[in-house]
């Protein structure tokens, strides 16, 4: 295979690429903020302005978002391997431009669903690409730290915007003020990506150890999909845990604001509860990502899934702002233990030549959890009540942690070329 000439020497490592790495951190914070414009407002918009009384109907926008983002994640990996990372990143921002307009002007719920299809595609392209670009820059070491910084920025962006839009909705109404903030974030993210972000694909192609490692001729898209989804013990364990994790997040996004509001909490407190979960999630990843580099991936993933299950049970049992505040913070902590660790685990096992596609497959399954969560939680909540739906999701989360404990290999975080040949069951 012939690659274009490299005009400047490539360097790998967080410190060696710090300016570009920090720029990508800022870009991903804006990606998260773009998603955060919906976290507090849309569940309330569904019930208050569009009169969607049934949980399953109100969650249609999360189903649409999850399916669109899952598909876009897969495409992002394939396209960025073939055409470069930066074009995919810029395309994702361009697709986000109409989203605030559609949400502000929406005369029917169908407009909201359409906006979330666009938002899901945009989030899949932008977030996946920033993940891959950071893996490219840091090389085979400190992937957990890099992913912790990336995901912390994204979810602190979600949290800050969720809280800000809750305040704006309380003072100015559900529309248009909260979505004007989202429009500003999209414009800034697009500008930074076009003008300042640099391509990183050559870092992956020439990563130290990558040329000598097995799989140097690459794998087909089908092979990468089967390995990541089913065949490799570690990759498939990570993929199922990611799906269940985002099943929880879909529940928290779509139903928890309704639960809190129907309990009589004011919009300001609903916004705080909607924000504290991604805030703890985001901030704690600054620690948990680095810890996974030292301690390994498996233990943190298992502990994180079990912590999330406990938090969900506490939310189902809660009835007041203080009890829910503690449970939502615990849910954020459990998610922080898992989120960057799962991504780093994919990077540990996948070869540099097909790592972007493996990340795309993992994120396909992970964000498919939004769609699964919308269906499971919505149908169960309609039939049996919201508290029962939360308990069922808690049980699924605990089972996922047990599966990781039984199936995932322990030492895949060690950066050796041998790890680039995934082993089957």
Account of the protein in words:
Keywords: Cell membrane, Membrane, Transmembrane, Transmembrane helix, Transport. This is MFS transporter. It comes from Brachybacterium conglomeratum. It is found in: Cell membrane. The chain crosses the membrane at residues 21-38, 58-76, 88-105, 111-132, 153-173, 179-197, 300-318, 324-343, 364-381, 387-406. With 425 residues, the protein is mainly α. The chain has one domain (18-201, 218-420): Growth Hormone, Chain: A (Up-down Bundle), CATH 1.20.1250.20. It has 18 helices and no strands. Helix 1 runs parallel beside helix 8 (143-172), helix 12 packs antiparallel against helix 16 (321-349) and helix 14 (267-295) runs parallel beside helix 16 (321-349).
CATH architecture: Up-down Bundle
Unreliable spans are: 1-6, 210-214, 415-421
Determine the N-to-C terminus distance: 32 Å
C-alpha Rg, in Å?
A: 20 Å
CATH fold naming: Growth Hormone, Chain: A
> What is the strand tally?
0
Largest sheet: none
Helix content: over 70%
By helix and strand content, what is the structural category? mainly alpha
SSE run: HHHHHHHHHHHHHHHHHH
The level 1 CATH classification is Mainly Alpha
């Amino acid at each position: 295979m012939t690659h274009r000439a490299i005009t400047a020497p490539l360097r790998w490592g967080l410190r060696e690429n710090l300016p570009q790495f920090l720029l990508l951190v800022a870009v991903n914070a804006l990606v998260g903020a773009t998603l955060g414009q919906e976290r507090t407002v849309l569940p309330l918009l569904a019930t208050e302005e569009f009169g969607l009384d049934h949980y399953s109907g109100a969650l249609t926008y999360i189903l649409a978002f999850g399916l669109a983002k899952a598909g876009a994640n897969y495409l992002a990996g394939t396209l960025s391997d073939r055409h470069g990372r930066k074009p995919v990143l810029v395309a994702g921002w361009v697709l986000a431009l109409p989203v605030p307009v559609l949400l502000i002007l929406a005369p029917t719920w169908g407009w909201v669903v359409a906006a979330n299809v666009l938002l899901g595609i945009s989030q899949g392209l932008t977030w996946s690409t920033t993940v891959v670009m950071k893996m490219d820059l840091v090389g085979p070491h400190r992937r957990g730290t890099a992913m912790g910084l990336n995901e912390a920025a994204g979810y602190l962006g979600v949290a800050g915007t969720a809280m800000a839009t809750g305040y704006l909705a309380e003072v100015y109404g559900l529309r248009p003020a909260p979505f004007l903030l989202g429009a500003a974030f999209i414009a800034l993210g697009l500008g930074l990506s076009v003008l300042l972000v640099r391509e990183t694909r050559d870092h992956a192609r020439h990563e130290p150890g990558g040329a000598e490692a097995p799989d140097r001729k690459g794998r087909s898209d089908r092979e990468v999909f089967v390995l990541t989804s089913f065949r490799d013990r570690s990759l498939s364990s990570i993929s199922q845990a990611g799906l269940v994790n985002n099943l929880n997040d879909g529940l928290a996004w779509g139903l928890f604001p309704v639960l809190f509001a129907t309990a009589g909490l004011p919009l300001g407190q609903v916004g705080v509860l909607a924000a504290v979960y991604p805030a703890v999630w985001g901030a704690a990843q600054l620690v948990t990502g680095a810890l996974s580099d030292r301690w390994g991936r498996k233990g943190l993933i298992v502990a994180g899934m079990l912590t999330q299950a406990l938090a969900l049970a506490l939310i189902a049992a809660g009835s007041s702002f203080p009890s829910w505040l503690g449970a939502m913070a615990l849910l954020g902590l459990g998610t922080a233990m898992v989120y960057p660790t799962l991504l780093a685990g994919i990077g540990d096992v996948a070869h540099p030549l097909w790592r972007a596609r493996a990340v795309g497959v993992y994120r396909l399954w992970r964000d498919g959890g939004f769609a699964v969560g919308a269906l499971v939680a919505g149908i169960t909540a309609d039939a049996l009540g919201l508290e029962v739906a939360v308990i069922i999701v808690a049980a699924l989360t605990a089972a996922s942690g047990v599966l990781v404990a039984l199936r995932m290999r322990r030492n895949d975080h060690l950066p050796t070329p041998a790890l680039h040949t995934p082993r089957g069951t």
